[in-house]
Amino acid sequence: MDEIAILKAIVREMQKGVLVLDKDGTILYANPFFMRNYAPHVEVRGSSIDGLVDSVPLVGAIAEVLKKRKTTGTESIEINDRDRFFKIRTVGLQDTESNLIVFIEDITEEKRVEAIKKDFVANVSHELRTPLASIKGYAETLLDGGLEDRDKLKEFLRIIDKHATRMSRLIEDLLILSRLESHDVPMEQEPIDIYKLIASITEGFKKHAQDKGITLSIKKNGRVPDVLGDRVRLEQVMVNLLDNAIKYTPQGGKVDVIVRYQDGEVRVDVKDTGIGIPPEDMPRIFERFYRVDKARSRELGGTGLGLAIVKHIVQGLNGKVWVESVPSKGSTFSFTLKPAR
Q1: Which residue segments constitute the domains of the chain, with CATH numbers given?
Q2: pLDDT digits (tens, 9 = 90+) for 83-99
Q3: Which of 109, 160, 171, 200 qualifies as a FRET site for 49, CA 20 to 30 Å off?
């Protein structure tokens, strides 16, 4: 067995950067992953790490290890450089031309997922704590003598029912999202007349829109073929998008649904003249529990999970979803799906 050849193959295929440095910080070897991700189109061997990598904290950490002149042992360091996170592990060598082996791993995505998990737990706790506190408070008031006042009894029970409904919706959305993210929900792939399906759902929202003084319309641009999809899940997508559009559009506004066949895909736009989304919020709008206006969203009964569910359903059907918006002028949520033929 050729151990040298095996070791070379392992280092060559590693999905993290590997550097071998001499005592002056000159690079004696860099694996392909490092060259692709940190120094493309640059002659690495014989260069100094300083100036080759654009992360000052990363270079500084490696320089600090070299300065200590460690000839044996290992050291592991995590570095935060602006919006990027790195983990570097250094291995000191003895009695060789080389002085240090450096393993560099970009853990930005790992940190992002970790932060999302922390936010998720905090958000769920917060979302459940508020209605639970209200239910408990009103229940205690009733138990402490409020049952005799019929008017108060009816009002308190109405409030308890409202908060219990909100908790039920939140738990239901959490279960749906959890199943979508873990791919426990099988997606049907059947031909669907998408325009007919969307027209039916839009019709069901017309009374709600009229009650708010909003004009709701749907139109089809040209011939639209059937799509391959899951009827129940697509209904869920449209219900969430229409509910949001009407919810955040003031009285006198409009919500237009447009269905068309464009560039080999079926495209659906839900366009409103509502409050819009600030540019800084756009990248996070499809995240779980992310709300532009938290107080208003809760007041209107939103769980903060609707758009995350929309994203996972559309992506699960091999489609794309995005949003375009101008603050105070409105938003357009769009998604595309593959035609059935």
Answers
A1: 3-106 (3.30.450.20), 108-185 (1.10.287.130), 187-341 (3.30.565.10)
A2: 788 888 888 776 665 57
A3: 109
